[in-house]
């Protein structure tokens, strides 16, 4: 889903693109990994948006269908922009909770398997639970 598609969808839903809301949308579009509401808040706070407004907007965007929820450790919700065609693969670290997006993934194999069970894949979201092999934030001081 492109930036223009999302802005069009917001307008169609009667959302006014105020400065802070535009910053929020940009933040979500530019995120390199799924963000928690707290992560989002830290990035949009300078634009003048408070935490409850962040939560309200994220919920509205999920409702509109262009933002999707990815669950991290302990079921903590993270948000990422939904991509219409490309499958979504995430890796979550069980120690520090860090979420990573994976670009290359064996989605053809999964789609074939699912088709073999009698389902037509609409969208694919997979989260792999793992332990960081690199220096994990949790084992080297508090994750912020
Ligand atoms: Zn880790």
Summarize the structure.
By secondary structure, the chain is α+β, with helices and mostly antiparallel strands. Zinc ion binds next to loops.
Helix content: 25-40%
Distance between the termini: 30 Å
* Low-pLDDT windows of residues: none
**Structure annotation, total helices:** 5
SSE pattern, N- to C-terminal: HHEHHEEEEHE
Number of strands: 6
Bound compounds: zinc ion
Q: Which structural class is indicated by helix and strand composition? A: alpha+beta
Shape field: globular
The Rg value, from CA coordinates, equals 17 Å
Mean pLDDT: 82
Note down, in words, how this protein is organized.
This protein has 144 residues and is of the alpha+beta class. The protein has helices at residues 3-12, 19-30, 37-44, 51-64, 107-116; strands at residues 35-36, 67-71, 77-81, 88-93, 99-102, 125-130. The two termini are 30 Å apart. The mean pLDDT is 82. Residues 93, 95-96, 98, 132, 136-138 line the site of zinc ion.
């Amino acid at each position: 889903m492109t930036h223009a598609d999302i802005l069009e969808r917001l307008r169609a839903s009667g959302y006014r693109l105020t400065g802070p809301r535009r910053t929020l949308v940009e933040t979500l579009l530019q995120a390199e990994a799924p963000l928690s509401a707290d992560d989002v808040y830290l990035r949009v706070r300078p634009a003048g948006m408070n935490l409850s407004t962040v939560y309200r907007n994220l919920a509205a965007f999920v409702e509109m269908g262009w933002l999707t929820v990815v669950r991290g450790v302990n079921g903590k919700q993270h948000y990422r922009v939904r991509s219409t065609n490309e499958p979504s693969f995430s890796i979550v670290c069980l120690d520090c909770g860090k979420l990573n997006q994976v670009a290359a993934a064996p989605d053809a194999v999964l789609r074939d398997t699912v088709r073999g069970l009698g389902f037509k894949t609409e969208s694919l979201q997979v989260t792999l639970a793992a332990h960081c092999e690199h220096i994990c934030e949790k084992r080297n001081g508090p994750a912020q």
